[in-house]
Amino acid sequence: MRGSFRQAQLWLFACTLCVYGARAFFSSPDLIWDESRYLGGAAGLIGGEFVSPENPDIVNGPGYPFLLALLMSLGLPVEAMRAANAVLMAFGVWFMYRATLPYAGKCWALGVATVLAFHPILIYFVPFIMSEGLTTFCVAGFAWAITTLLRRERVTVPLLGICVLVLTWLVLTRVLFGYVITIAVIGVALMAGLRRDVPRAWTRSLIVLTLSFGLCVPYLAYTYQLTGQAFKWSTNGGELLYWATSTNPGERGSWFSTSRAMVEPELAPNHAEFLAGIDALPVLEREAVFRTRAMESIRANPVGVLKNWVDNINRLIFNFPRSYHDEELRTTVLILFQCPILALGGLAIFCMAKWPREIQPEIWLLSILTFIYLGLSSVLPAMTRYFIVVFPWIGLVMAATLGPRLRIQLGRVPQTRCDAPFAD
Predict the structure, then answer these.
(1) What is the distance between the alpha carbons of residues 279 and 187, in angstroms, rounded to a whole number?
(2) How many CB atoms lie within 10 A of CB 245?
(3) What's the pLDDT band for 3 if we cut at 50, 70, 90?
(4) Distance in angstroms (rounded) separating the CA atoms of residues 96 and 396
């Protein structure tokens, strides 16, 4: 039996590598989606300037462009850069398996890793020059590293370093996680301050989060130098808020590019004049105007904005409803994948609420980080590809919470190691 599971995880690694690698190599060489932006960022890093200092347009952090810059410096073609995501995805699946194994056993570990490997959204996006592959790799790698660190009696410098570096790379790849770790640091510090005896896991978690934030300070100093604004992770937040709060008939908080909004018959009557008037403005001025218009929309129609937020949550999980968009057959396939995740996630939340003392502190930490991330994601125009990148955390929490209970019986909690946050 042990050999069969070892073979299964190797086969899963190999199949993930083959599926994503084949899709990367046999796709059209033409650049699509955000590929040109990421390649431009990589070229900028090689040239010594991540973004133009005259008009800094910081849409994403330097984490993924840094990887691309390394590949570019080797002279690799676009197909090879896309295939690199297949390698990241295969290791992400393996980290998912290894992280889950100590908590729920081989069947659960293989199950959640398989869902991650063959989720349709990841198969659709990862084999291109998009950040989902690296993000998933970092999320899964951090899940393995932090759970291992918090379980051990002693802290080892290499493992602590892995936790901090992987989390930092995650933040610099998808800067929304910068807000996540900032909120988490403040929250954990406040909770620790309210206790006389601070649990060991809290102290270690706070060290990891704080050190990771500290490694992001040079990036924040860089953005401050360019923009004159402190704590500036990106410069497109205003545009995202503008679309999230747009409540014209038929709009549900989806994002649209300026070029598309200027010409499409459903969008142009409500947006073309405004967007044309600010298109020539410098990036920072344009973002300020976007934010001002978003605040006006919230004051003018708070109920409509609230409806957009509900639609954002639905779109984060199921990828619909989208503004002016008829649903497709692949939406049904996605729902078939997402409904079991949603059902098991809800059951895990119930178990955590019913037996909080029985939940390991590292599982609480990943749960908190997940809720902060998904909460922030729901405020902006959301898509399921923003949800699925944190499935390694979601899947691990589900398996660690439900695995022991479903293996015995739901109504009876097994005795587990516990220095959970709510323990006396």
Answers:
(1) 39
(2) 26
(3) low
(4) 8
For helices 200-227 and 176-193, give the axis angle rounded to 10 degrees. 140
The two tokens of residue 366 are 């990943």
Alpha carbon 154 to its chain's center: 30
Distances (CA, A) of 390 to 46, 308, 366, 401: 30, 23, 10, 17
Q: Identity (one letter) of the amino acid at 392? A: P
Q: Which residues of 318-347 are buried (b: 16+ CB within 10 A; e: fewer)?
A: bbbebbeeeeeeebeebeebbeebeebbeb
Residue among 171, 137, 130, 166 nearest 17 (CA) = 137
The residue behind tokens 């699925």 is: 388
pLDDT at 413 over 80: no
Determine how many CB atoms are found less than 10 A away from the CB of residue 29. Answer: 8
- The pTM for the full model equals 0.92
Beta strands of 164-211 (E only): which ranges?
A: none
Task: Please give the Cα distance from 184 to 206 (Å, whole number).
Answer: 8
Lookup: tokens for 294? 């978003």
